[in-house]
Amino acid sequence: MLDTTFLVDPRGRIVYVNAACQRMFGYAPEELIGQLLFDYLAPDDRARTQEEARHVMAGCPRVGFENRYLRKDGRYVNVMWSACWSAEDQLRIGVARDVTHLKRTEAIQHATYAISEAAHNATDLDGLLRQIHQIVARLVPVAGLAIATCDRRTKELSFSYQMDRDGSLPVLDEPLACQFCAQVICGGRPMRLPDTMLRARSGEALSRHDRTGWLAIPLIAQHETIGVLVLKSDPETHHSDEDRGLLHFVSEQVAIAIDRAQMKDELLRAARYDELTGLPNRRLFKDRINSAVARCVRSRGSMAVLYIDVDDFKQVNDALGHATGDLLLKDIARRLQLCVRGADTVARLGGDEFVVLLEGVATQGDAQLVVVKIRDAMLPPLDIGGQSLRIQLSIGVALYPEHGQELEQLLKHADEAMYSDKRNTGAVLTYPAPPNPIGGSSPADR
Ligand SMILES: Nc1nc2c(ncn2[C@@H]2O[C@H](COP(=O)(O)OP(=O)(O)OP(=O)(O)O)[C@@H](O)[C@H]2O)c(=O)[nH]1
Predict the structure, then answer these.
(1) How far apart are CA 225 and CA 414, in angstroms?
(2) Rounded distance, CA 287 to CA 345, Å?
(3) Nearest CA, atom 9, ligand 1
(4) Which of 273, 275, 314, 349 best tests ligand 1's pocket when mutated (most atoms within 8 Å of CB)?
(5) ipTM beyond cut 0.85
(6) Closest ligand 1 atom, residue 446 Cα
(7) I need a surface site. Which of 131, 169, 231, 301 has the fewest CB within 10 A?
(8) Which domains does the chain have, with CATH numbers?
(9) CB within 6 Å of ligand 1 — which residues?
């Protein structure tokens, strides 16, 4: 028979079981007869199974109750029961069907569906990784989970997500974890953290804590390894071959979901940030200034906009090359950011033009304090490949509401003020710090 038939007395003791139990539970009939069936139950399923047995013994035959038992080899078997009570014999008659395979298929289907739903609904990569943790934890025993992802451009590996069961703690110390993940990426297949690597870290015999199991599965999307899924398991519940099979299958869906989320994040970032400097671009700046205007209208607040242009920047490109010009722009962006508060916005409009949004600044005098700070920050020359570059900025200020009550008016005023500043100061960009202005550009020329 494919199914296992049990006869169980009112106390739950097995009175009879057929030979099919050997295949399903790993025990021969003589090993089970006389034992309590309850003792073989998965601990999590005990309470509801007792409840179900009471029901059956009250004279309600049932078909379709499911629970799990621990086999002799330590694996779980999923069982579906048909059971009834014989009052005459004072025996519970149960026919057990092995539905482990069915359950596994169901679990894979659920996980696949849940992952694609999470990929669809998650607003960002962080949210997606949190949901993936929950989905994996429903599939196999997980004490903690980490996800390492490769940077698309640099190919550097870093941990984008690490979480223990209790919601805290980095999962594995970082250098060891990176070394382990690098090995998994090279091998291209799931791998358990070898004890030798743990010993190399602790330098002695492994403690119970160190015996925690670590299983890493490469995340492969479009034939490329994009990261590694690292699972922590308690010393008592190392992942079985079946768990590994499940994880291997699910990891393919996880990889696709992460790949898509990364791409979406990148597209969103590219649409809002300047690639060279990492500063907000014109579009994001407009959003920020519009929100700031709305806040000012509500709270009768004030703000200032600084329009900044690098004097004679073209000559850096012409004389020292575009790459040097790029480095200079990056350094200017960095220095500008150091001059303002976290709540302020520094953005690059394009080329050598930057803007700064200073919320809560009401007067020309207050804005000028920041202008002076910025000019001071640009005083130290930048050293690029032995070239000492000095720069000068032209800066124009517009105040809300004095010079405009909306974005375009404010930018126009600040731009005009910047040109007026350029006319007044003249260009003094020098490299490698010679005394004369470059290229004969005089304020009158512009
Ligand atoms: N290296 C580099 N140069 C850029 C980039 N974007 C624009 N530029 C260059 O920046 C220069 C901008 O020059 P302008 O603002 O027109 O002129 P300028 O030399 O700064 O002169 P003034 O503005 O009158 O002081 C042009 O040569 C552009 O080609 C960039 O991303 N990297």
Answers:
(1) 49
(2) 11
(3) 351
(4) 314
(5) yes
(6) 24
(7) 169
(8) 4-98 (3.30.450.20), 103-272 (3.30.450.40), 282-445 (3.30.70.270)
(9) 276, 309-315, 317, 322, 325-326, 329, 351-352, 427, 446
